[in-house]
Design goal:
This protein is mostly helical. It has one domain: 30s Ribosomal Protein S18 (Irregular), CATH 4.10.640. 40% of the residues lie in helices and 0% in strands. It is built from 4 helices and no strands. The two termini are 14 Å apart. It binds zinc ion.
């Protein structure tokens, strides 16, 4: 599991307004090796961007871009 403990929110640093579900490379950073969503205390995201990322991941799963489980 990637740990970003102690880091600031990555999306805030990159000034991301909207997390795109089609951008698999950016959202797969917030998945564990089993395909679960990394919790906020590991990802270091703020609540706004964590919600955006998790919604993007759920949408990408529906569109079969990323798997539900590995
Ligand atoms: Zn943020």
């Amino acid at each position: 599991m990637p740990t970003y403990k102690g880091r600031r929110c990555r999306f805030c640093q990159e000034k991301v307004q909207f997390v795109d579900y089609k951008n698999v490379a950016s959202i797969s950073r917030f998945l564990t090796k089993f395909g679960k969503i990394v919790p906020k205390y590991y990802s270091g995201n703020c609540i706004k961007h964590q919600k955006m990322a998790s919604n993007a991941i759920k949408r990408a799963r529906e569109m079969a871009l990323i798997p539900y489980i590995k």
